[in-house]
Fold these 4 entries.
Entry 1:
Amino acid sequence: MEIKPTEFFQTLGHPQRIEVFRLLVRRYPDALAAGEIALALDVKPSTLSVYLGALLRAGLLAQERRGTSLLYQARIETMQGALAFLVDDCCKGRTELCAPNPEPQPHARQNVLFLCTANSARSLFAEAILHRLAGDSFAVFSAGTHPALEPNKNAMAVLLAKRYDTGPLQSKSTAKFLAKDAPKMDFVFTLCDQAANEDCSVWQGAPLSSHWGLPDPAGVRGSDAEVRAAYEVAFERIYQRVQGFVALPFETLDRGSQQKAVDTIARL
């Protein structure tokens, strides 16, 4: 499907359509049902249907059917093509003038931020795991868009049983990392859908970001054993993803390849 750059920009020039596209980019590689998109953006289903149709015609979204549901996913390759058009055609290939995110200069330790809503379980799991696996290579942080007063006791029990040091783990607000004197992040990962749905401020340094969403174990109801099992499953899935991240050959990957790699890890 050939997409005309003018159609791309015209479609995204509509304030509500671009909000739909931005949400799906934040949730990429997830594919979302229309109902979830409408709920996240507080848009009427009939109105959203019009927006989705326009975005599909412009090649900005992919659509697939799963059972009785139609799911929508951002077509990143279309956005990449439009950016390439700006650089190659409008800027005549002068990337030093037009490239939006030049290759970052490497430094001793890369900064990684894990985000969730409460910053009480999943994001703290990720912080603890990455610190243990590669604390020499990465400075690790976590935060919540609506942080809890304290870490989740069930999550801390799982970490303590695995001999993790939980002393430094605290629930913190994202505002701490949006301040002017905050460390510039190299990677930002969202671990819950609600945090990814929220339109956070732009992070300093234009870090790579990816959505590593998984179910909240705090939402599980049942016996003590069932609740504990839910936290164990969350820990193991996050461990797999963080382990895959640590194993990436960063020194041989350019920015685009790193982005593709961290998006692939989201499927683990």
Entry 2:
Amino acid sequence: MYTYENLLVSLENRIATVTINRPKVLNALNKDTLLEIKAAFTALGSDPAVKVIILTGAGEKAFVAGADIAFMQPLNAMEGFEFGRLGQEAFMAIEGCPKPVIAAINGFALGGGEEICMACDLRIAAETAKFGQPEINLGIIPGFAGTQRLTRLVGKTAAKYVVYTGDMFGADEAYRLGLVNKVVPLADLMAEAKTVAAKIAGKGALALKVAKSAIDVGVETDFNTGSIHEAELFGLCFATADQKEGMKAFLEKRKAEFIDK
């Protein structure tokens, strides 16, 4: 069902795993790969068989080592703008996906690699993972909305340091900055990502969808507007079978059996 040239997609127990599969070039992002990412997450977002998505990279060296520099080098200003917008659109398909997305960061997450993991809801990093926005060393800046997401995640001062220096940093520093949720041994990375995904998949799909909307919309607006949006979504939950079941199960001291309706 999900067949791509540069992506591998599998589905097990309502958890989809998307693997960027260009290990010979450290899973670097070219135009075709970005188009496939946009298509895959758009399709997965509307697939009722999918509740949670894990995104990772093929091999043990790289999650995504960045955008394809050989492709970018000859671009002119308009072509650079168009490539940047393509990357932004692909990553918005991840961020805007109504399903929770977990990045399992198995190695280098540099440039576009750091940018794509920031579009995910949660980030779990291997101890060997390396992060950075090294674009400044190439005479450019992050172009796939990295300056925007990084600032929102770690704050303006830390974001400027990362972008201005172009330095690479490890998983422990990424955790200290608040860039990742967990750091685990590489051998345990996918198991931990699947454990977290399974826990989330056990919740009601509609509640997960509106929870994501409440947080993502709220962070982009003022407190009062965000609070009103939250209240509207909170109210909608009471029109679902899952709300009736969840509260009934709580009162009856048993585990809720959600049906995603």
Entry 3:
Amino acid sequence: MALAASGINTTPDAIAPALYIPERQGTLQVELVAAARQFDRLAVPIDPTQEALLTQLQLGRPVVVLQNLLLEAVPRWHYAVVVGYLPAEDAFVLRSGRQQRLVTPRSRFLATWIRAKRWGVVIMAPGSKPEGLSAPSWLQAAAALESAGNHEAALTAFDSALSAWPEDAMAWLGRGNNLYALGNKTAAINAWSTALRLDPDDPVPLHNLVTTLADTGAACKALSQLPPERAGEHALVVAARKHVNDALSRASRGNSRGCPHPVP
């Protein structure tokens, strides 16, 4: 249901092998999120509040939730998909197991959801608008696609983030990382430069930027991006500085001019 709502044409039987763990007789959150990634989809956590759940339902998005149907001391874990809320009945509508429409009083549902730490995710296409979701949650899901090697889908997800949060340095960092992985180093350099402008103290875009500049024949430009050397530098800055200096040493063997000094 949740995958279908994101545009994937599939059936429960088709995705069950990706979700079911025989030795544990069920599915776990990490496997559910990984299954979404197999279909190039984001599994985006929602804020653990009733308001966040209702917001997603109002936007037409089913929400996958974890419930504890028994007690905290003796849990019985169960996944369901919340597909609607009935104000007149003060009840949620769930797809639960083989039941396509299980109307559950709000108080009863919330009790089972609270015992499961209010865990819930929406399954989203990478190009969807992330309205009603937090930037950290969306970026976490996009980074999971990147870690899985789904770079085209991850790039689309980071671009979607930038459409909503254009000044988010982490979104620009993710855009640059995936552009680089896809072979577009020039665009990656531009993205990392923006990330560094937005968050000058983050060593990750600095490292990625200057090492890529050095590797593409622009070691002098890379040197100009490095801050003055100081004690206690982050390990990534130390590594970047060494990488640039090594590139400059190699270049100087065939060119004694070195880097031009900036005009005061």
Entry 4:
Amino acid sequence: MVILTPENDKPVEKKVGFWESQRLSKEKSFENQAHRKSLKASALYTFSYQMGAMLQGGLSLISSLEIFEIENDNPIMRILARQLRESITGGSSFSDALRKFPKAFPRLFVSMVEAGEASGTLPEMFGELTEHFSFLTNLSKRIKGAMAYPIIIIALAVVLVGALLTFVIPVFADMFADFGAQLPLPTQILISFSYFLRTNIFFIVGGLFAIFFFGSRFFATEQGKRVRDFLTWRLPLFGTLVQKSNVSRFCRTYAVLLKAGVPILRTLEICSSVTDNQYIQTACEKLKDGIKEGKQFSDIIDKETYFPKIVRHMARSGEQTGHIETMILNVSNIFNNDIQNIVSMLTSLVEPALVCFLGLVIGSIVVAMFLPIFQLSTVVAK
């Protein structure tokens, strides 16, 4: 750090302490993350809720950002609030300040803030954003909750079976070799599989790593994304859950942006940019092209098989009444309720099924290991 002395106005090096150096280093790291890191829906919900509450309470935008910076525990959010405040103080509009952080604030967020600035309803727009990101946060929690238990059980089964095959079965194999007797077929298969696993473990791990590596690269391509979305859609139960989740997000985003006064073509561009699902993106492109040609939303969406028929019916009803955004939002609410029911059903069905599966696998291994001992006991008894 360099300062000027009053005597000669020459730069003099000022020593910076270790802890101060660490603090400055962390501050710089957080500033870099603020420009690179995407914010979760929960963080955007918190920001929208608190900003909306302060603006509705009569505080100015600058004061609201300053209070948010002081009260927030997240260092990245504090840096974002400070830099937004500095940009606005320097003469930028709020929406222009948000555009400087395209990773942190999605286009939907910026567009709604811009619409709120233009119409003088910024506090109300923050209320809409709060409801939107609250919906996304709860939806994400439900889906993760439905998938967490099966993943944990399957991982536990893999670890237990791997431990048995690697450490336990070889001990029994050595013991059975001393018998000199013909082993039952299930035991022979189990011992052979254990031997194969132990002697080829590096090849197996390398193969799995290669599959994961090249699979990740493939699914990052446009063709790979289409294959991924198709396979996900066709999964029993889980496919319906993911499909309704994606359509529900699209419908809510579309309705919220239209309600905010965002032009329909720009709304469709934002809907396409905030999803990674190829079916939704293709539908958005077809909707844009069709609307430019004067076609109705309901007629275009009817040809998209990924969208359930209720979307077309509700959209057509909204077109006839002039409240399409309300009807599309109702579709999102309907799917949200369906998702809750699917999650409840999955929880009630998958849990006992996985427990039975795990018990069957472990039980089969135990029976195969002890079957020769039972046969030996029978021979000795005779």
